[in-house]
Specification:
410 residues; alpha/beta; FAD/NAD(P)-binding domain; 7-stranded mixed β-sheet; 5-stranded parallel β-sheet; 24% helix; 21% strand
Amino acid sequence: MSEQLDVVVIGAGQAGLSIGYYLSKMRRQFVILEKASTIVPAWRSRWDSFTLVIPNWTVRLPDFAYRGDDPDGFMSRDELVRLLEEFAALFNPEIRFGQTVTSIEKAPTGGGFLVRTQDGVLEAKNVVVAVGTFQMPRIPAFGRHISESVAQLHSSHYVNPSALDSGGVMVVGTGQSGCQIAEELYQSGRKVYLCVGGATRIPRRYRGKDSVSWLVETGFFEQTPDMLPSSRARFKAHPFLTGKDGGHSLDLHQFAKDGVTLLGHVAGADGTKLTFKPDLHENLKAIDQFVLDFEKSVDKMIEERGLEAEEEAGEPLMTDAYDSAVITELDLAAEGITTVIWATGFRYDFGWIKLPLLDEDGYPIQKRGVSAYPGLYFLGLHFLYRRKSGLLMGVGADAAYLADAISQRS
């Protein structure tokens, strides 16, 4: 006979812990299932020098906002993990580790759900899927065609420069991870080749404030999916910047000036030879335009709201990268490149939920985490309700909403 539970939460990351906190306050019977051997495994797996890219004051877990003495700083990986461990210790939830959920389906009777794992079946009145969007590393299919003489790893498996084979490194992708890893590598003395994608950037500071503060003021993180040009715009990378060494801007023009070889999108691979799209300058122009648009939007908001702000000019736009040759073919062996790091994001898979609730992108259909199936909820997804839903600054509010929805089913 299957074990009977009130609530099953899948995932012990920031989302699963957040809903667990509220369920504990409500004195609901629940269990969290986590396939890893510890809580918040995604944060633990970040590289050694990792820091948050948004200020510490944006960490707003339920009744546990950041309370340290450096709100404008950027927590390291280990500091953040300790904070999340402290949060979990507040209510000490029952977490069953090493539990991979293989399916969720409707229970034949009682209106609940069957949650199957490798160890058996749980029957729950309510299920909260809190596995997030960034579930599995995404590596382009043509990566299989690169010679075995070249080491390949996803950015989620990067540790530090000394952990890589000696030689040059190609980083594919210029989102948050790709740019931070590329900067660390070339500053460590490595020859770096960086494939520039569609991610944009913002300056670390503008007119006397951290730019994240201005993004909050302009409502950037409050955007809802219906405000986007298309459903797939939900998955566009956030503008890149870094919190390392107290935080600073990342600028691909500076990278080029410092000796990084910039390339366009990878188009294909055959052995040690790679081909690239001739879109490098086009991608750079889009990035530079985003900076100008960001600064104009902040200036406009300051004027319209009559806000006090410094009159400092923005960082001067560099142009060094436009002098870079547009390379469409490269032999990794000839260039001494021994490692390719795929900073190409993650993919998700909700096909193990045996209910017809996925849209054309394979994304759960829900309204602020509430699905069309009473008792089945989603939490921690990118753009679940607002842009901030998958972030430490927004997951708590969504968790509170779902906890209330669960309480109303009693």
